[in-house]
Design brief:
Blueprint lengths: L2 E5 L3 E3 L4 E8 L7 E7 L6 E6 L5 E3 L7 E6 L4 E6 L8 E9 L1 E4 L3 E6 L1
Parallel strand pairs: 2-11
Antiparallel strand pairs: 1-3, 3-8, 4-5, 4-9, 5-6, 7-8, 9-10, 9-11
């Protein structure tokens, strides 16, 4: 059974930092393209960042220079380092793993306040 479990969400002030983690089990992690998405209240889920099997990364324009995605295939973990957080970063953050089919975690809440 495939399982993705996000952690690390919290409430922080503007300018703060958080590191999200996504622990995967039940899949050949190294074969999967991985990504972080987020969904703010009343908005559609949006792609924040992705990392290919080969390590190529993409970032939404709104997080470039502030967020860093990484993966550890030895620990089956996907991470998202978020620095200089803004109020607009408030959302539930989800990890997704894709290879032939896609899997999603349940999400972790990030709240940024002034």
């Amino acid at each position: 059974q495939v399982k993705l479990v996000e952690s690390g969400g919290d409430s922080v002030q503007v300018g703060g930092s958080l590191k999200l983690s996504c622990a995967a089990s039940g899949l050949m992690f190294y074969r999967y393209e991985l990504a972080w998405y987020r969904q703010a209240p009343g908005k559609e889920r949006e792609l924040v960042s992705s990392m290919s099997v080969g390590g190529t990364t993409t970032y939404a324009d709104s997080v470039k220079g502030r967020f860093t995605i990484s993966r550890d295939n030895t620990k089956n973990t996907l991470s998202l380092q978020m620095n200089n957080l803004e109020i607009e970063d408030t959302a539930v953050y989800y990890c997704r793993a894709t290879w032939i089919r896609e899997y999603w975690g349940q999400g972790t809440q990030v709240t940024v306040s002034s």
